[in-house]
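Need tokens for this chain, all 222 residues.
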Amino acid sequence: MSTEPASLPALPARTPSRRADGKARVRAALLAAARTLFARQGVADTTVDDIARVAQVSRATAFNYFPSKQALLGALVHEMEARFLHIMDTQLEQPATAAQRIAALFSWTAAKVEETPELSRVLIGASETTFGAAPDSGVRTARTHRAFVRILAAGRRAGNVRADLAPEVLAEIVGGTYGGILHAWRVARRYPLRRRLDAAALALAELIAANTPVTRRRRGER
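Here are the structure tokens for all 222 residues:
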């Protein structure tokens, strides 16, 4: 007689209800309309009525999903930040040094910004503003910082990140550089974003490397 536990019948996969699917479609349509209008005419000159018209829903429906234009803007900012964190986590799945992962992240950022520069300016500006004012700003800052720490800590374990500075300190330097370049691009129309990000990635690679001149000098002092 077999002592193996009997296999349980597979449960049918849950599929979203028609109502839930419809809600998701309406929400996606409103966000897509907001993206288009914010990029085309800015946040100040866009009304919820405009967004509802482009999304082909009633004004009441739009307000039912998003009670204000700022709520729509906030949803787009959170979407942008979530995509950024996902890309950072995806980098850890690829065999690479910390410097290569940071360079890939910077290159991805330049490409995404170049796809929709006007919308990117709106969302980056909103992200900068809400980081200091939104109730969850501390959580969002910590989440981004931890993502950089994970990349640098993995690099240290692999031996390609310097050991004389904590990953948390290096993450602040890398994150501060990244945020500073994006801010400079947002406020200056002719700012060479891709060139600056590429140059920063090279400089940061030298800074975080396990064999930098500084770390070699410190070893010699011991």
